[in-house]
Automatic annotation (TrEMBL):
Family matches, as Gene3D superfamilies: Formyl transferase, N-terminal domain
Annotated EC: 3.5.1.10
One Pfam family linked to the record: Formyl_trans_N
Protein name: Formyltetrahydrofolate deformylase
GO molecular function, one term: formyltetrahydrofolate deformylase activity
GO process annotations (BP): 'de novo' IMP biosynthetic process; one-carbon metabolic process
Higher taxonomy: Bacteria, Pseudomonadati, Pseudomonadota, Betaproteobacteria, Rhodocyclales
């Protein structure tokens, strides 16, 4: 999840988030790698949306325009 920072930890308005499906056969090392990969992708998209002025914040909610 990529979100704006507020005074409350991890409670800012969400800009972007994603999920990844895992399998019972995935090793712990695989899960760490998946997490790092998805974290980078989500942060990059969230920053791009913000820098392109595509995010409207209303209270603790966001609208992200395509």
């Amino acid at each position: 999840t990529c979100h704006y920072v507020t005074s409350e930890l991890d409670q800012g308005p969400i800009i972007e988030q994603d999920v990844i499906r895992i399998d019972h056969s995935d090793a712990p090392e695989d899960l760490v790698r998946y997490g790092k990969d998805i974290e980078k992708a989500v942060l990059a998209r969230g920053l791009r949306y913000h820098l392109e002025d595509r995010v409207l914040v209303h209270g603790n909610k966001t609208v992200v325009f395509r």
